[in-house]
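Now read the record:
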Amino acid sequence: MKKIEVRLIQSSLTHKIRHQILWPHKNLKDCFLNEDKLETTFHVGVFYNKEIVSVGTFIKISHNLLNYNHQYRLRAMGTNKTHQGKSMGKHLILFAKKILKEKNIQLLWCDARKEAIPFYKKLEFKIKGDFYDIPKIGLHKLMYIYL
């Protein structure tokens, strides 16, 4: 029987998937975020049969277009190609939402890549504004969900 485990992880465990899925144009050693080490930042990993297959980083920062005092941003979320479309990302988001609710966070937002918008919509994220381009990565939209 296949086992899925979702848990908090160290930022270093996010780098391989960030490199493979999100930032292949970077060197592996450069697949970190300045916010990774902040005390308020946390990282979630989804493990399938003890192999890490999906990661996401949650950063306490507000977006100026979203009028809520208690916000977090989802960054650098990715699932390895062999596990995409198998609810790994959904498990990750649901786990993180519980943590954010315990922290009394009102809203989670992200810069969603164009191809990821249907995924976020299934999880009831809403869109704000038009597409914008992030160089070397592509078109994105601001998406958010109330917690």
Summary: The chain has one domain: 4-146.
